[in-house]
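Lecture 7 notes: from sequence to structure.
We start with the chain below.
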Amino acid sequence: MKEEKATERLQQQLKRLQQRTAELEQAESEHKQAEKALEERANQLQIIGEVSRKVSSILNLDELLSYVIKAIQESFGYYHVDIFLIDQDQGYALFKASSNPTVEKVWKEQKLRFKLGEEGMIGWVSQSGEPLLANDVTKEPLYLPNKSLPETKSELVVPLKVEEQTFGVLDVQSSELDAFNVDDIFVLETLGNQVAIAIENAFLFERIEAALDALQVSKERFALAVQGANDGIWDWDIQKESLYWSPRMKQLLGYADDELDPEFEMLDSLLHPNDREHTKAAIEASLKDGRLYDVDQQMRTKSGEYRWFHARGQVVFDEVGKPVRMVGSTTDVTERKQAEERLHQTLQGIIEALGQITEVRDPYTAGHQKRVTQLSVAIAKEMELSDEQIEGIHVSGLLHDIGKMSIPAEILTKPVQLSEPERALLKDHPKVAYDILKTVDFPWPIDQIVLQHHERMDGSGYPQGLKGKEIMLEARILAVADVIDAMASHRPYRPAFGIDKALEEISDNKGVLYDPGVAETCLRLFNEKGFKFSD
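Predicted structure tokens for the same chain:
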């Protein structure tokens, strides 16, 4: 009995020993597996570190992608590795590099690309920015077979991201099933983030190089332009408030190359007082919206003489839209301006002579065209019309009754009311004037302004019966001024009504016969600003 109990205890101890041995062996196996996993993770981290250090120093994009693919394939032994970069403007992921030279050549010739979010695993990852694993590509709906890679059985695609921006994807493929796990996703995503930073740096470097090349070309062209230009060249550094004057620019102003203060205030001191305000306005407009700086201005030369110059310039903005400089050229146009002034005076003399011919035939209206011109110009200035419009109104006023040359003098000077046929003949004078003036190549629409100066807002005028905005603004101004002087002046068939009665007519028919804005301006000139006709 004792021997049986001893044997039983021995067997129990042996069983516990065997269990303990199995536990120790299991623990040792797990320990070895853990050591192996740690060793693999250490190797992976080492690879990540080495690749990160290397890519941070590569600024050429092609060289960078080639190194990354080679390093990944050599380190992990994948069947195939490739990289696609995203073109957001086109909406595609574009193939850039492959671990297989033959495949790379074929895909580049094919211009292989995948539409973002719509085509294949690469298109999906490019759009989503999330990794995608297929350990059996035959079961992955997004997998697109490629005849260049017939042995692919597993595929892992990870994004190349910097923060939330995805620049491209890293695509690795294996010829074995279940080739990838979560550790592979971690490693390749971590590696991809470092590569994405390097890609971003490479893009930035490319842009900087392109900008520097363009800047160098611009400098060379600018230097040649400065040397060969007959115009003066200037360059205003807005931040430093300094102004570069080319040697030719200084020469045009009569200064030596070592003269003229580079401070921007020097320009203001050289400008004629009459030109400072409009020059300042032109500069401010260019700085505001980048429009071309284009002005005529008088500048004082070293001798004290003022000469005319035509200045043109363009504003340069930085990457955030802030103006940093303005560069341009200046041409001496003094002789052209003097010729234009002589021509203008000649034209003015001809226009006044034509107007006087009409007044000789109708002495009762002597001075009428000049007075209409005075008031029309005053109204136009008060309404802040452009200088060009005001000049056109000035000429139109002096010529608005030239059509009366065709009317017999006895009708113009008849001391009683005209008959209907005579009135019809008189009403024809705007059309006659139009026929005369349309043959002259004026820089303003004089023929149309004169043709329409008897039209009325409600369509009751002549000769075309135009209404409202169908009538040119210049003609609407001329119409009001014509009525004011006609009513205020003596006529052969009636005495003068006077200014007050004329103003009453304009006030009563404002918006009916006469343009309301023009009428209000005319009334304001007489009632508030004391307008009077000059002799």
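Points to note: The domain at 232-332 is CATH 3.30.450.20 (Beta-Lactamase). The longest strand covers residues 306-317.
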